[in-house]
Protein: Lysozyme
Amino acid sequence: MKILSLLVLCFLISAVYAVLGVDISDYTSSDAFHCMSQNGYSFGVVRGYCSFGGVDPNGVDNIENSIDGGMNHTDVYLFPCFPCGDPAGQVDALVDYIAGTGYGMVWLDIETWSWSSDLGTNQQFILALANELVNQGQSVGVYTNYYNWQSIVGLGWTGVSQYPLWYAHYDDWPSFGDFTPFGGWNEPSIKQFNGDVTVCGVNVDQDYYPL
Structure:
C-alpha cells in the first residue's frame, strides 16, 4: 500500500510539471481546438504530409485552427512515402505548403509502413529527409517507438539521435517511466501515451511533455 501511494504521489507531482497535447490527422476546427485548450491541452501536432505521397489537404487549416483555438504550441508531422522515393522532394513539398502558417517544428513520422526490407536503405532515406529539413531551416524531431525503429532501421542505428524523440507507448500513463533507450536516445522529449480517443468531438492521440 505504501508503494502504491508513493507511485500515485510521484505521478501527481510529475503531472503538475507537465503539459498535455494532442496529435491529429483529421480536419479539426478552431472551436474544437479552443475546447481542448480549455480542457487541459496546450499543444497540438497536425499532419502535414501523408503516407500516400502528398501534402495533407487539411494541414494548413489545422495549423491555423490550432493556433487560433488557443494552443500554446503547434507542430507538424511528416508521414513519408518510401515507395514514392525522392525524400528531399517530399520535404520540400511540405515546407512550401505550410510556409507562413506559424508552426513550430517538423516531426518525421517513422512507423511501420511500406519500407524496404533492407535496413540500410531505410536509414539513408530517413537521413535524406532529416538533412533536407535542416537545409530548409526547419527544427527536426523524430516520432517512432522501440519496435518500429527495430524493424525499420535497427535498434543500434543512431543516425538521427541528435534530434528530439517523440515516442509512442499506449499505456495510458503520462510519464516517461516506461521508456527503454534505443537508437541513440537515452531520454525522450514527448510521449504519445494514448491513441484514438475522442476529445471535444475529435479523434486524437494524447501526448505528454514534461516541463
About this structure: Residues 1-15 have pLDDT under 50 and may be disordered.
